Fold this protein.
Amino acid sequence: MKNRTIHHLSHIDLDGYSCQLVMMYTPYKKFNYNANYGAEVKQKLDLILEKIKASKEQASLILITDLNLTADESKWLTHEVKKLGENGYDTQLQLLDHHGSGEDSANKYEWYYLDTSRCATKIMYDYAKEHFEFDEPSWMQKYVDVVNAVDLWKQEEHDNFEYGKVCMRLVNETRELNRIMFPLEDSTYKLSLLHEAAKFINEPDAPIVLDEKIYFLKKDFFRRDKNDTLDNLATEYVVELLGRARDEKTIYYKGYRGYLSYGVGNTSIIGNGFLTKYPEYDFIVDVSSRGTMSLRANNQVSVSQISKEWANGGGHPNAAGGRIQGFKEQFRYDKVKEQIERLINEKESRAGNLEYKKEEE
């Protein structure tokens, strides 16, 4: 296992992220991915398969935790891993889950481990101790019991259950970063907060202590040089992330340079903050999972006109919005950008044809 790269896909709740927190204490090269149920699971598995094929490392493990796969998904994934092996990629597959709805797959595939008596974090913890090099910290077993108590709703384990409720809220209300737009940073953020939360687990009145510290833990994560409000610290951090990804997330429309974000929100503050810091951009557009878009400009182009041309939207020259008809929700940024660039090409092509016809007339 030492030379095997681990691609770890897990759920987006406390149990799912805690599985990845356990794996932080193994020495292997790891990539984390997170998904909710539905189409997102398949898209993230596709991404993992693409990364394995593109890598120079031949040995890998696809580890799936706190997610049950449908019969069709299990069959498809088994086939894809087999194809990897036929093409020289030594890829192992292991799923660890506790949802009874995966029983059919568990009965059919050796790699599909199911135990409904433990939460996924506890299964991951026990599996890591048995199969991996595992440098377990002193608080880990207590933390695992906390997650197990709240995930299986064991209210009789009062202290663990109450602390688990606060940890659960910590994950559910950690929305400062969009996990599709910033998957690595969002995962790092949540795991960092959970890691900090584990430090208070043996304090007197531990649930109250953690409850009162969550705000400051968040600020500590985002703070750089000076203190500020949480909103301002998070905004500055997001603008910095947007700036780092300029090469990948730049789009062009009719000669204007734009920036495409997905699900970031708060466009008035973040969008204008980005345009102020990067004046070489003419506009920024943030698209939601439903296809609604919010555009901002800084006197370089009328985003009201862009919104009208893209989605029959409207607004003001520097602030506009609309909704893209036929937009399909995506769980990977590259798939979002493909849709928007197809839209841009279609609109530019149509505009070019109209200009051509006017010249002929």
Remarks:
- The CA atoms of residues 11 and 67 lie 6 Å apart.
- The radius of gyration is 23 Å.
